[in-house]
Amino acid sequence: MDHSPLTALSPLDGRYAPRMAALRPLLSEFGLMHRRVQVEVEWFIALSDAGLFEFEPLSESGRGMLRSLVLRFSEADAQAIKDIEKTTNHDVKAVEYWLKSRFEGQAELQAAAEFVHFACTSEDINNTSHALMLQAAREQVLLPALDAVAERLHALATTLAGVPMLSRTHGQNASPTTVGKEVANVAARLATARARIAAVPLGGYVKFFGDQNAASVPDHAGAAVATLPLGEMARPNHLEFVDNARGQVTYMSLARVDDGGPNGAASSRLAIIDRSVPLAQQKVVGLVYTGGREAHGLWTNPANNLLYVAHEQDELPGTPNAGQTVCSAFDVSTPLQPKLITQIALGSLKLPSGELRNKKSINLVYVRVGAKGQTA
């Protein structure tokens, strides 16, 4: 049976083959061979610089010739490696033999040919090659594609900023919002995901079971990971970043409700995390009452000097805003010292069909002054 989109074993090489075209030279067997050649070449050059008595440092012309094999690697070269593999029955060994064959007529390289793949296992070559493949796919294909989607989302968020819609949460209607604002939320989440994808460390390191050689441990084991204790039953909800001339802070809303808030009322708290220090050293440096029950959503204004905290639970009887959910506004001009400005009671909306009381203030909506809406 001839190979065609209909006979492909995977939809990636069948139905979706045209969309995979950019990844094919990077993640195919050709791509793997290409990176194996690159790793073998760079290891060969590194050995020449290691001070070995039998292997003097390569000349600049020799290094240039070797790296040109990587730069100009072609499908014909990959096929030549596959032909050698028919004899070796070993894919990495076939790359080694192919590389040695390219030394013909190069006295300097032929003299050191036995140092190709010296002191390496196949997995040393393979796992480094896989990392290079993933790096190339990420930088050349994945991130540019995400950037294009993000650009389109930002354009839609602006275009649809004044189109109203009704939110839903926990299976029920929630605060009014706009289509543009919801699209902007998706764009923000995509930006976070993109940053995480871009930050994933991709390196080539193999540690075999039982290997106790300290020299085999990499200098950089990967990105630092920080654990930030928030307190018992803190129930963290949302976080927001504030960067301005006076500091860099992460705010975390905690849903737990404690006594002793503003005016003696029950209140949740806001955790303050100083981001001006390295990630591994970051910790909660302060807590401030939010002035409402079960703190949830957090938003800053564009100038990064105001912070708004929404709450899910009604205020208790005997408090100024009893029976209503509130939004608290903070002055965060000095991020490490947020100051409560006011509580905004979200109240109810009087409609022809009756009064609709705010139940859960999870979302907030900014309305451009002068913009027309359906309710005003």
Number of strands: 12
Q: How much strand?
A: 15-25%
The radius of gyration computed from the alpha-carbon positions, rounded to a whole number of angstroms, is 30 Å
* H/I helix tally: 8
Report on the architecture of this protein:
- It is a single chain.
- With 376 residues, this protein is of the alpha+beta class.
- The chain folds into three domains: 11-120, Fumarase/aspartase (N-terminal domain) (Fumarase C, Chain B, domain 1, Orthogonal Bundle), CATH 1.10.275; 146-207, no CATH class; 236-357.
- It has helices at 24-27, 29-48, 60-71, 75-88, 91-101, 107-111, 122-159, 179-199, and strands at 164-169, 172-178, 236-244, 247-258, 267-274, 284-289, 293-300, 306-313, 326-331, 339-345, 348-351, 354-357.
- The strands form four sheets. A four-stranded antiparallel β-sheet has the order 3-4-5-6, with no helix packed on it. The chain has a four-stranded antiparallel β-sheet with strand order 7-8-9-10, with no helix packed on it. Strands 1-2 form a two-stranded antiparallel sheet.
- α2 (29-48) runs antiparallel to α3, α2 packs across α7 (122-159) and α7 runs antiparallel to α8 (179-199).
- The longest helix is centred in the middle third of the chain and has 38 residues, at 122-159.
- The protein is elongated and about 90 Å long.
